[in-house]
Write a structure and sequence with these properties.
It is a single chain. With 306 residues, the chain is mainly alpha-helical. It has a domain of 210 residues. Helices cover 72% and strands 3% of the residues. The strands form 2 sheets. The chain has a two-stranded antiparallel sheet with strand order 1-4. The chain has a two-stranded antiparallel sheet with strand order 2-3.
């Protein structure tokens, strides 16, 4: 039971990070029908920028303040990066066949990895521990202050996003653009601005996830965003691409499936199916879900465009 509870905690922490990144995928897809495969690299840039800021400020300020400043700077630079990517790489291809922006997104992902490798070098870098490291015991399982910070930050961030989408003028404009950008433009909405704002919001979510990921696992590197980005895309498809609630549900479930599969099932099988095979559990479940329900768990709520 202790192992199962520990894997539930680990799964919730992992799934919350997947959910934040998956929201960026699903928001962009819901509005312009694009899978932004460079989104994982935005997470990576956020983590590396925060690592750089922490290295500069750590000797000068209290650890908690250093973490907050690093997170804010990482979010700002990630937002500027994603805004530039949308304007330079995706906007000119908006009316092109869908294969063109998809290939561009993959190329942008490789380009960002290469630029990051040049700037920060390819070696793994240790990410400083800024919060207390003493674990807290909960019913035989343990959770660290960093993991508590990740869960609390995720809940607050998701609540703020839901409020933004459902209770603000920008949120109404985003939903209108997702339904039909031409009709929304006739009603006074500026689709270009809405799309840019969507990319900026997605980048902020990815940067927050990147700082969380680095804080939880303790390392950063130029290729660190690829696998979390792929898993988050899987989570978005799992829950129902284009559906905000689906991205959250898909992310949490994916994290739980991976953790339980790697830990609990790994122990039951004597290590035959352990942490080295974490990825197979998530993708087996994804294949099963999409076979039975191709639109994902919560379905597709984005209207088809003529």
């Amino acid at each position: 039971m202790d192992i199962f509870l520990q894997q539930i905690i680990n799964g919730l922490v992992l799934g919350s990070m997947y959910a934040l990144v998956a929201l960026g995928y699903t928001m962009v897809y819901g509005i312009i029908g694009l899978i932004n495969f460079a989104h994982g690299e935005v997470l990576m840039v956020g983590a590396l920028v925060s690592w750089t800021v922490i290295g500069i400020l750590q000797p000068l300020l209290p650890p908690w303040l250093v973490l907050i400043i690093a997170l804010l700077i990482a979010c700002a630079l990630a937002a500027a990066l994603n805004y530039s990517i949308e304007k330079v790489a995706y906007r000119p291809l908006r009316n092109s066949p869908r294969l063109a922006p998809l290939i561009t997104a993959i190329g942008m992902s490789i380009l960002l990895q290469t630029i990051a490798m040049i700037i920060w070098k390819p070696n793994y870098k240790s990410y400083p521990t800024l919060l207390p490291s003493t674990p807290i015991q909960i019913g035989g399982a343990s959770i660290t202050p960093t993991q508590i910070m990740i869960l609390v930050t995720t809940v607050v961030t998701l609540a703020a996003l839901m409020w933004l989408v459902h209770a603000t003028k920008l949120g109404r404009a985003m939903r209108a653009t997702a339904e039909n950008p031409r009709v929304a433009a006739l009603m006074g909405v500026q689709p270009d601005r809405v799309i840019s704002a969507t990319f900026i919001i997605g980048a902020v979510l990815a940067a927050i996830a990147g700082v969380m990921w680095a804080s939880n696992y303790g390392t950063v590197q130029h290729s660190m965003g690829f696998l979390p980005g792929l898993k988050a895309f899987t989570a978005a498809v799992f829950g129902g691409i284009g559906n905000l609630a689906g991205a959250v549900v898909g992310g949490i479930l994916l994290g739980l499936i991976e953790s339980i599969g790697a830990g609990y099932i790994g122990d039951l099988t004597g290590g035959v199916l352990g942490s080295h095979y974490t990825d197979i559990f998530a993708f087996i479940v994804l294949i099963a879900v999409l076979t039975l329900r191709p639109s994902g768990l919560l379905g597709e709520r984005v209207a088809d465009r003529a």
